[in-house]
Amino acid sequence: MKSAKYVFLFIGDGMSIPQRMMTDEYLQRTEKRGLLINQLECQGLTRTSAANAFITDSAASGTAIACGEKTNNGRIGMDASGKNKLVSSAEVARDNGRKVGIVTSVTINHATPAAFYGHNVSRGNYYQLGLDLIASGFDYFGGGGIAQANKEDDPLYKGDIYELAKEAGYTVSRNREGFQKINKDSGKVLSFGAADALPYAIDMSEDDLCLADFTRQAIEVIDNPEGFFLMVEGGKIDWGCHANDAATTLKEVIDFDNAVKVAYDFYEKNPEDTLIVVTGDHETGGLTLGFAGTGYRTQIETLGAQKYSGGVMANKIKEQKAESLEELKPLINEMTGMVFAVDGEYKKGGLNLSKVDEQKLQDIFDKNQKDGKFTGHSALSKALVLMLNNKSTVAWTTGAHTALPVSTSAQGVNAQLFSNMLDNTDISKGIKQVVQK
Fold first, then answer.
1. CA 91 to each of CA 69, 338, 361: distance values in angstroms, whole numbers, following the listed order
2. Which residues pair with 307 in a beta bridge?
3. Do residues 146 and 130 make contact, with C-beta atoms less than 8 angstroms apart?
4. Spatial contact of 163 and 182, defined as CB atoms under 8 Å apart
5. Cα–Cα–Cα angle for 127, 141, 261, nearest 5°?
């Protein structure tokens, strides 16, 4: 089998068929285009179960995708017994002389990225996974920062992870200014755009670094004559789905797709030597494209009316210090595009809030009063998000994961390995074949 000199693996955390199709339809309606990931030459479906559960978590699925073996929920780079370390495709690439990069929009020692370099019985041992990050010797880590980087009460504590990384020879950047100084001559790099996870794409300012920025920088740092392996995770797709926030989720999928475009541009310059694989680790939220009462009508494009993630909306509601729902109505309209009736009349063609909707919001406001102050900012924000979801004809069945299969797409050298019906372990097995020389 021909090896691929340059291998990209993109993982949309929580991204399954509904998330991809919702976003694709949104783009078709608003920009007359679809997702690039849905247009790659090979397409397949992938089962996601863990060794001990039909519904997986990100640790078990990340380990399966990275290492090619099922494990129990919660384990990182370890087998189901918790006694034996597994070997990831990234480690195989490293051991075959390739440079390796890991990028994510969440913290770099979160479950999915950690599965490519870490070995721990618990995904919650963030500090220890940070030690594994340094020990891996991988060439580039980028995106969100290191969780619990200086956890002094950890039994394996050796010092601040950032300082240990510097001692190990890494160039460490923790802001945009440092990011701009990194180049192909920087050596091994830790490049972070936030102390924790990156902001949601829907909330980003022009000064924020996105997934595509880190993907582009990773390629610059690790590109070399021996080839490379780069894993990029869209981790906050999952977080948006846990929050049942469709608008925030689809903006994360678009941000993820933009990162894939960076790799695709590289592929077009090196088509005979490059493999791109795109998958999800599981579905989150039980997203459904259709809502009771809307029949066959769909208006997914109206999700674009939401201007902020639910969390930012809650903060803006809190900052308003409103004493009545009436005072919040202009802000609600600005944040969601939804409109209240004025003197019993609705704006023609608007995203109208019904009397039932308004009463639900009023009930939340009345129920969350303490000493004359409104304290239900998060509850009100969540209700607004769900109302807009439903008016946009999407809905959710859970705030957790589901067992839905995910879509897997591929382009380039041996892309056919990732077609048809796969198990998530097959992704690692295929990549291990193409990174060996």
1. 15, 50, 52
2. none
3. yes
4. no
5. 135
Structure tokens at 105: 């929009």
Is the distance from CB of 427 to CB of 46 less than 8 angstroms?
A: yes
Q: Which residue has the tokens 């020389």?
A: 437
The one-letter code for the residue type at 34 is G
Q: 209's torsion region: left (phi>0), alpha (psi -120 to 50) or beta? A: beta
Helix (H, G, I), strand (E, B) or coil at 192: strand
pLDDT by residue (tens digit) across 356-371? 999 999 999 999 988 8
**C-alpha to C-alpha distance for 48 and 423, rounded to whole angstroms:** 7
Q: What is the mean pLDDT of the chain?
A: 96
Task: Quote the pLDDT of residue 349.
Answer: 63
Tokens representing 89 are: 């495709």
Q: Give me the domains of the chain, ranges plus CATH numbers.
A: 6-287+398-435 (3.40.720.10), 289-395 (no CATH)
Please, are residues 346 and 335 in contact by the beta-carbon 8 Å criterion?
Answer: no
Q: Do 190 and 165 form a contact (C-beta atoms < 8 A)?
A: yes
Contact call for residues 374 and 368 (beta carbons, < 8 A): yes
CA distance 85 to 81: 10
- pLDDT per residue as tens digits for the range 101-110: 999 999 999 9
**pLDDT digit string, tens, across residues 207-254:** 999 999 999 999 999 999 999 999 999 999 999 999 999 999 999 999
The closest alpha carbon to 12, from 23, 3, 26, belongs to: 23
